[in-house]
Amino acid sequence: MPVRTADATWNGNLSDGDGMMKTESGAYEGDFSFASRFEDTDGTNPEELIAAAHAGCFSMALSNILADAGQTPERVHTTAKVHLEMVDDAPTITRIDLDTEGDVPELDEQAFQEHAETAKANCPVSKLVQGAEISVSARLA
After folding, report:
1. What CATH number corresponds to the domain at position 110?
2. Which end of the chain is more exposed for a tag (fewer CB within 10 A), N or C?
3. Which domain holds residue 29?
4. What pLDDT does 132 receive?
C-alpha cells in the first residue's frame, strides 16, 4: 500500500507565528495560525484536517461494510467534529463526533446503526485516534 505524505512549516513562536500545510498530491494547501487553531478565525488547523480524514475514511469503511452485506449504498455522507479541549493544561483531542447519513435502499434503521458502529470501530482513522472518545450518530436518508 502507498505511503501518503503531507508537509507543514511553522514560522515564529506559538502565539504570533504562522504556518502552511500542504499535501503531497497538491489537493490541499493552506495557511494556519494560533488563531485559526485556538480561536474562530480564517485558516485551517490540524484538527480540521483530522476531521476531514476521519469523515472520508468512515464513509468509505461504512460503504464497504454495507456492500459486503449485500446493501450497496447510493450515498454515504459523514460530518466529523473534532473537539480540542484543555486537559491538564495541554490542548488535547478529547472527542470526535461522527454524524452520518446513508441512502441505502431496502435497509432498515437498526441494521444501518449496527453497520455504522462496525465502521466506527474498524476504519483506519478511528483506530489511529482511539485515545479520543468517538461517537457516531447514524440515520438513513
Report:
1. 3.30.300.20
2. N
3. 6-38
4. 78
List the one residue out of 76, 83, 84 whose CA is nearest residue 112.
Answer: 76
C-beta atoms surrounding 65 within 10 Å: 19
DSSP 44: B
Asked whether residue 24 is assigned to any structural domain, the reply reads: yes
Per-residue confidence (pLDDT) for residue 107, from 0 to 100: 95
Residue 90's contacts (CB-CB under 8 Å, 6 or more residues apart) are none
Residue 48 has a pLDDT of 95
Q: Give mean pLDDT, residues 93-108.
A: 96
Report pLDDT for 111. 96
pLDDT in tens, 107-135: 999 999 999 999 999 999 999 988 878 88
3-state secondary structure of 115: helix
Instruction: Check if the beta carbon of residue 54 is closer than 8 Å to that of residue 38.
Output: no
> What number of H helices and E strands is found in the chain?
4, 6
